[in-house]
Amino acid sequence: MSFFLVFVAIVLAGGLAWFAVDVGRAASGRRGGTAAPAPRGLEEPPTGLAPVYLPEYPNPEDVDAVRFALAFRGYRMDQVDEVLARLRDRIGVQAALIHALSEQLKSAKESRGDD
User: Fold this and answer.
1) Its pTM surpasses 0.85
2) d(CA 30, CA 32)
3) What is the C-alpha to C-alpha distance for residues 14 and 31, in angstroms, rounded to an integer?
4) In angstroms, how far is the first alpha carbon of the chain from the final one?
5) What is the pLDDT of residues 66-98, one digit of tens each?
């Protein structure tokens, strides 16, 4: 039994040493060591920025400007769900308006006899 405990202690000590070396390498890479810079587009996004939501009547530029706060694993789902729900509702309103105007135009053409 004591041999097993010694074996476990050696394995744990080796694992901790390996982890410490790995963390040290990563830290030296961030300080301008030999690590190559990250390719463009793969940089870590700034975490201190406030989230940017859509206005009530969004246009394409507003959608491009949307930013979500970072969470432990990606974006905050509640923020993404809120923006998607607003986009869905707005698209629904616009689709209904387009349909109503198309029907109005169609009936106006029919009343004038245009085909």
Assistant:
1) no
2) 6
3) 26
4) 94
5) 777 777 777 777 888 888 888 888 888 888 899
